User: Fold this.
Amino acid sequence: MLDLRLIRSRPEEVRAALARRGGVPAALDELLAVDEQRRRLLVEVERLRQQRNQASQEVSRLKRQGQDASAQIVAARELGDRIAALEESLRDMDVRIEALLLTLPNLPHSSVPDGRDETENAEVARWGEPRQFDFEPRPHWEVGERLGILDLERAVKISGARFYVLKGAGAALERALINWMIDLHRSEHGYIEVWPPVLINEASMTGTGQLPKFAFDMYKIEEEAMYLAPTAEVPVTNLHRDEILEAEQMPVRYVAYTPCFRKEAGAAGRETRGMIRVHQFDKVELVLFVRPEESYAALEQLRRQAETVIERLGMPYRTLEMCTGDLGDKSTKQYDPEVWMPGQGRYVEISSCSNFEAYQARRANIRFRPERGARPECVHTLNGSGLAVGRTFAAILENYQQADGSVLIPEVLRPYIGGREQIAPQ
Assistant:
């Protein structure tokens, strides 16, 4: 969440920053009004407390002198009742302020390009040349079904639309991708591997910003008040919820694989075929906790680590910087690497790398001491897909398909799939 002190002291600056996203939320004006009312009420409560103290002292004085203090006792009790009522109002206001803060998006960094929507994102990198085929390349769902490694029809029977089943070499390739990505980030990029739960409580979902705004897009187990993980970002970031990290621990880097679950409630009619927009998918996620002054350098490094995965797989990609109109609600700055999909003739998002500054840390109460004995302050958190495994699988089928229907396996993955060089039609 945003810092209330910043909103209170520089409201027009906050208003201008939020306007860059396409409009100032009405919650901002309500927040400022409730906060002003709360501060006035605090002054009144303090004044009444002083009066009650004076009344109590007068009662004590009269009693010591053997005089009647009944009127002063009644007055002190009335003051106590008024204070209690106002304190209840203050608690209600605190709850309302917290609820309003939780709805406000993060402030875009000054370097983020202005734009209305995804059509105005800025391309910042491009790598590799799309392969020239001597046949018409097929989309991955056709390639996979012809090879017998991707079964969409039976997935519908088991679960419904937007699910898939991987079989044989397809299942092995998915597992190889997960293992290789984790090994790469662990051994070369210095991440600590984590295997987190995928059932997550409301406090953790709120801590990373999925709640309250994105509740509609997540699967909830109602009777348990638990959610299925939409991404490993949620459980891994919450590893340090309500903790204070020491300076020598920073930066902290974690890599985790989880299955991910999303309703895709806002995607009706979009990408209904194949593995691109589905309800359950695999992802390898990178999560960082860094000093505030290091977070933007860390974002550039994170982006390169995601791009490196695509490069090692030998697939062309481009990287977009999100404009203000397409920037994630939690992000101050965001890059989306997109892989080339020749069977569809387009680039498809395969990762998203974001700096959240203190937005998540303030919600989840994740702090660090800049030095021993210093006052704790919020860390900056970042995360990025390293990569979305199902989309990587789909991109391999499309980029490495052959005229005879087979698919070559990228060299870096062959040691993870028993030395196998291709998946051939049976």
Q: What stands out?
A: Residues 26-64 form the longest helix (39 residues). The mean pLDDT is 96. The CA atoms of residues 201 and 226 lie 5 Å apart.
